[in-house]
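Table S2 (text version). Query chain:
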Amino acid sequence: MSGTPEPRVYRVVIADDTYLIREGLRQVLADEAEVEVVAYAASLPALVRDVEDHRPDVVITDIRMPPTNTDEGIRVAADLRALDPPIGVVVISHYVSPHYVLRLFEHGSAGMAYLLKERIGHPQRLVDAIRQVAAGGSVVDPAVVDVLVEARMRVRNSPLAGLTPRELEVLARVAQGKSNAAIADELFLTKRAIEKNINSIFSKLDLVHDTEVSRRVAATLLYLAETPPAAREAASA
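Corresponding structure-token output:
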């Protein structure tokens, strides 16, 4: 007699030097049966110890923590990516910063998420991100994608200017890490229509098309935040 399989429980370590953020995350996740918080850390050294002691499925970490309060979260994400098996990372930040996003995804976006702290009060959104990174997927906060798209659109002769309004809608969702099926549902289109839009987008932007969501996110973010050649030349003059 076969019963219903038990739902997976994701073991999580939370790292943030602000007590109110740690407490807020604790309360958000307290009633989530899928999540077991196994440790809380307030600094990078403490996070490293907790990962070694507990080997969690996912780490939720601030970008800036002691000892330097610069980019500890980004650095630990790179270290956790190199483990076998890798540990998923949800980076949380106050900053809508292309610089931080590109640093996080510069070696691929598999198992990585970038969320704004103002949005993590929604339990389902946070749990969805935990699921995604534990499975090797990726998540990017929509507000970050919007900033990247708007910045790129302001560049003179940007290839994005050649995209249709529908293609821009699809591109934004590709950059958020959404699958073709999810984009189709959200935009009330067929999956085939989304595939045609994506083929057109990557052709117009001269990007190599790849069906892996993580690579699509990385390629799209790198393109959107790329410094135009004229700007690079001016900066080096």
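Notes on Table S2: DSSP finds eleven helices and six strands in the chain. Residues 182 and 191 are 9 Å apart (CA to CA).
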